[in-house]
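Progress against Task 2.4 (sequence-to-structure conversion) is shown through the following example record, which the project officer requested during the mid-term review.
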Amino acid sequence: MATCRALLLGTGGWAGAHAKAYRLCSEIELVGICGHRNRERLDALAREHGVPGGTDLGEMLDRLRPDVLDIACNPHGRVEPILAACARPCVRLVNTEKPLALLPSEARTIAEQCRVSGTLLTVNHQKKYLPAWAKLAALIRDGALGEVRFFRASCQGNLLEQGTHLVDMLMHFNGHSPLEWVMGQIDDLDGLAKAGASAPDSAIAELAFANGARALLEIGKVGPCYPGETNKWHHFGITALGDQGMATITLNRTLEVVRFATGERTGEKSSWDENYVAAIAAHLDDAARYAANPALGHSSDLDKSLLSFTALMGIYASALDGGRVRFPADFEDRVVEGLANRGR
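Structure tokens generated for the chain above:
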């Protein structure tokens, strides 16, 4: 029986996916839904899932006293609800959809307030819980590909639409090794004016890690197409090259592994369509376990998510000022605002 209680913030498509995922969870249950843009959608979701709905987040937090606030709404509204959760001791953890933030100042405020209040935070990078992607992470971790020193990663969503998932998964595959430097170029700056995940719509970057690995990223409109995919969001994949083998995985097609010594090739299905709701549920169950026992950690906790966000801001800074951006580094909002001004 679930012992962790969650309040969901949002009524859009992804909020609906989160609500469905709670039905598959064993550690956490949905106890309410909060929204303000679409009352009809809010009422329909609340009825469908048999929970109360409301439009005042503070009132619902105080009345329902959830253990978790699950944020699945527009990223332009990240900071305020996280601060509201941090102000209430009943909330042990905030789970938020990506991106963590749109600006460095927002990420800094979120991190500072979570640490001051002791509120845990996870970012909903559910791709780690897709079966084929979890299998590849285990293969790399267990040394099946030998020493992995190069990754190629690409997607067709922009830097904060899918780029944040891509970089986070890359960090996960590489054991969250610290960054040494980032060098990048950015184009299609009109994406910074989007009402949702506002970010440049094209980027190419190289990342260098402390463990010696390198990664080449192609993001957005410059991202390649994967054969057989017809959905823009499914053109998402990573290749890992080790000294004993290599593997290529795509979001909704296949995981293919080659062993150099034997020439053996294996392949299996990698389906987003069939598994994404269950992956959200697995992520939420792990978040509930983390809330109950912080010593367990989480694959998408605050520190790991900040590492991914900082890598993206490093790409912004490199594109704005030129040259490599070396780490550790702190960024100001000028790295985003400067690119926005350039695009006008």
